[in-house]
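Weekly structure sync, notes
Attendees: PL (lead), two postdocs, one rotation student
Agenda item 3: pending single-chain targets
PL asked that the sequence for the first pending target be pasted directly into the notes so everyone works from the same version. It is reproduced below exactly as submitted, 110 residues in total.
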Amino acid sequence: MATIIRQYPAPLRGRLWLDSWAGRVGHPVDVLGETPKRYRVRAVAYIPLKDWPAGHVALVPLHAVTFDPAPAAAEDPHPAQAALDLTGDPGGQLPPLQSGRELWLGFPRP
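Predicted structure, written out during the meeting:
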């Protein structure tokens, strides 16, 4: 029996990654504690590759578990739009668009 080195006060949400014939598959788990080489996890839902019902507790290798990022309360609802502003123009004023011919020839059309 492995000795639990660190017992978490609240379970951490993570994913248990298992290799199958269809590739690598991630299953949601709660991480309850850890030993030097393994995590103690509880299955959130049925895991068919191991035939573990929901609530099953097991020790798995450290490399088989990744942790889900914690949701931030004040997170930007549209992070992709903030990343699109690459102009560096604080006023938001852009020069007029050039046609493909102007860009290719390097001078405006007559």
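Discussion points:
- The helical segments are 79-84, 100-105.
- The longest strand covers residues 6-20.
Action: rotation student to compare against the earlier draft before next sync.
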